[in-house]
Design brief:
Blueprint: E1 5-11, H1 18-21, H2 23-32, E2 38-44, H3 55-74, E3 79-82, H4 90-96, E4 101-103, H5 104-115, E5 119-122, H6 130-136, E6 140-144, H7 158-173, E7 178-181, H8 184-188, H9 191-198, E8 202-204, H10 206-217
Parallel strand pairs: 1-2, 1-3, 3-4, 5-6, 5-7, 7-8
Length: 220
């Protein structure tokens, strides 16, 4: 591991299983082929068994994320990834640490804006957040919360996957030219691949976007 860049990945869903905890790191690595250059260190915040899915869970998570980010900097990590499309604590973390901070929502929105001008965002919250509206501006064509999807855990079923794909089909029919996936849990189940096999539309995926940003920040 000597000589490798060390990047901390902050998960906002509390996970006890090490394999599950490190899954975002594996997907980011797969999309960026970083094995030779980067060591990922995955940690999760405490007491968030359903992750972040509304204002209450977001506000509760922010101080935990800031605390974990500061701890990672003290451990001499070279960067931090906030692996959540709500970008919880992003502004606060950037004020508290001096190392680069990469965050799923910001990076995915930048990718979506490169791909299209009529972006339909698909997420797990009931409505589009003000943060998402700021990120996409007038290019936010619409926002969909798939049927029966209220937290990231609801994605781990055939019904959950179908509901997301059905929303993508609806987006296409409504004239969207790009879908922005607004939940890293959707990246976690690689739903972008399934969407593109069913719908002729461009898809901005948060974990893929994080991989692209890492390449840019660390000149890889």
């Amino acid at each position: 591991m000597d000589g490798k860049i060390k990047i901390g990945i902050i998960r906002v869903l509390t996970l006890e299983n090490k394999y599950d905890l490190e899954n975002h790191a594996r997907i980011i690595d797969e999309n960026g082929k970083f094995r030779e250059n980067i060591e990922f260190v995955s940690r999760c915040i405490e007491d968030q068994p359903f992750g972040i899915h509304d204002d209450e869970t977001l506000n509760t998570a922010v101080p935990k994320i800031v605390k974990l980010a500061k701890q990672m900097e003290k451990e001499n990590l070279d960067g931090i990834v906030i692996s959540c499309c709500a970008d919880p604590g992003l502004k606060e973390v950037e004020k508290e640490v001096k190392i680069p901070v990469i965050s799923a929502g910001r990076e995915c929105s930048e990718e979506a804006l490169k791909l299209g001008k009529k972006i339909i965002a698909i997420g797990i919250t009931a409505e589009a957040s003000e943060h998402l509206k700021e990120l996409l501006g007038n290019n936010l064509f619409d926002y969909y919360n798939p049927q029966n999807i209220n937290s990231t855990l609801d994605l781990n079923s055939k019904r959950g996957r179908k509901s997301v794909v059905d929303s993508a089909k609806k987006a296409y029919r409504c004239g969207s030219d790009c879908i922005m996936i607004c939940c890293t849990g959707m990246s976690n189940i690689k739903i972008a691949e399934e969407i593109k096999s069913n719908v002729d539309i461009k898809v901005a995926d948060p974990l893929e976007s994080i991989a692209s940003k890492i390449k840019k920040v660390y000149d890889l």
